[in-house]
């Protein structure tokens, strides 16, 4: 009985971990600025503001450990794609000119194709 329960639980965990469903994006403060030049070039700057990383208790060597925030954990590309679709901007796609992840904010500058 216990063995069957353990097998069912392991199978459930494997199925839950292997599903390809993506989590919805958590709401963050953001800004989107666009600019069109007289030669037809369209550029944009997308900024996301997030809570500053917290200092967590020290590790075994008594060093403070800081949570890290990176572009992957923020899903910047997904957020930018959603924003471009909502704005109806860069319908033919875009090229990243710059991506910066700083302390409490991230920025992507791009150019429409």
Secondary-structure topology with pairs:
Blueprint: H1 2-18, E1 29-36, E2 42-49, E3 55-56, E4 65-66, H2 71-74, H3 76-87, E5 94-101, E6 105-112
Number of helical runs? 3
Count of discrete structural domains: 1
Largest sheet: 4 strands, antiparallel
Radius of gyration: 21 Å
Structural class computed from helices and strand pairing: alpha+beta
Beta-strand fraction estimate: 25-35%
Order of helices and strands: HEEEEHHEE
Q: According to CATH, what is the class?
A: Alpha Beta
CATH level-two architecture: 2-Layer Sandwich
Highlighted features:
113 residues, alpha+beta, Phosphorylase Kinase, domain 1, 4-stranded antiparallel β-sheet, two-stranded antiparallel sheet, 32% strand
Task: Offer a quick outline of the entry.
With 113 residues, the chain is an alpha+beta fold. The protein has helices spanning 2-18, 71-74, 76-87; strands at residues 29-36, 42-49, 55-56, 65-66, 94-101, 105-112.
